[in-house]
Amino acid sequence: MSSVLFVVSAAQGWTLADGTVHPTGFWAEELAEPHRLFTEAGWDITIATPGAVKPTVDAGSLAPQATGGEERSAELEAYLASIDDRLASVVDLESVSATDHDVVFYPGGHAPMEDLAVDTTSGALLTTALDEGIPLGVLCHAPAALLAARRQDGSWPFAGYRMTSFTDEEERIGGLADKARWLVETELRGRGADFVGGAPFEPNVQQDRGLYTGQNPSSSVLLARTLIESAG
Questions:
Q1: Which residues make beta-bridge pairs with 106?
Q2: What is the pLDDT of residue 231?
Q3: Which residues form the DJ-1/PfpI domain (predicted)?
Q4: Which stretches of the chain drop beneath a pLDDT of 70?
Q5: In Å, what is the CA distance from 12 to each residue of 33, 97, 115, 172, 177?
Q6: CATH architecture for the domain at 3-230
Q7: What does the alpha-carbon distance between residue 68 and residue 164 come to, in Å, rounded to a whole number?
Q8: Domain edges within the chain
Q9: For residue 105, how many C-alpha atoms fall within 13 Å in the half-sphere facing its CB?
Q10: By the number of CB atoms within 10 A of the CB, which of 34, 80, 172, 179 ranks highest?
Q11: In contact, 7 and 145? CB cutoff 8 Å
């Protein structure tokens, strides 16, 4: 049986450039669909957050206009309700090790831009996963967490890696680009990522060695299936 470590943001808000806080959390589809697919594959799942705080779902990710309709929203709500006990009993990110798992997975939502982007514990875990060849799946805004990774010499472990994330264009279409302190794509490119953006809101998964990244919520299923296939 394979085991997967979900690293989920504990943030409930995202601080904008003017100092106001935009309510956020994990994006429903990005946690629910991979969790469902990994469960169906028979994988053992551990969920960790900073401080063992129960993660919050972004209410906007359950709105019909975000999911494609009321039926889809209801499906996602029902799935999250079915695993609420798991979400309520997460472990502390400080207590987990990448090497105890076969896969490490980070779902997105704007929340990782608030905490995981500057979390040194998460950054060290990501670096270990990369160096140990543990498949690392990072979705949508979660590649912001890669920014916290550092080697002892101060270099960025992910420099030169082909990757994707929620794009600056998608952020503009969503209406939040001009309000943000920084944008994920811009920061990744600035650190030396080989960034590959696809069409807005269409599935796009990039793999480079052990790093698997998905662009947006619609990439959730494809990224999870790709990880399952890679694990054999």
A1: 138
A2: 84
A3: 27-229
A4: 1
A5: 21, 25, 10, 22, 19
A6: 3-Layer(aba) Sandwich (3.40)
A7: 23
A8: 3-230
A9: 31
A10: 34
A11: yes
Q: What is the pTM of this model?
A: 0.98
Per-residue buried b or exposed e for 42-73, using 16+ beta carbons within 10 Å of the residue's own CB: ebebebbbbeebebbbbebbbeeebbeeeeeb
Q: Can you give the pLDDT at residue 116?
A: 98
The burial of 126, by beta-carbon neighbours within 10 Å (0-12 exposed, 13-18 middle, 19 or more buried), is given as buried
Name, in order, each residue with C-beta under 8 angstroms of 161's C-beta and a sequence gap of 6 or more. Answer: 193, 194, 208, 209, 211
The helix-helix angle for 220-230 and 28-40 (nearest 10°) equals: 30
Q: Which tokens belong to 173?
A: 């279409």
| The residue type at 9 | S
Burial of 184-221, coded b for 16+ CB within 10 Å and e otherwise, reads bbebbbebebebbbbebbebbbbbeebbbbbbbbbbbb
Q: Which H or E element spans position 74?
A: helix 70-82
Of 3, 201, 226, 213, the closest CA to residue 106 belongs to 213
Q: Which two tokens stand for residue 190?
A: 């600035």
Q: Which of 187, 185, 186 is nearest to 164 (CA)?
A: 185
- Per-residue pLDDT reduced to its tens digit, 24-63: 999 999 999 999 999 999 999 999 999 999 999 999 999 9
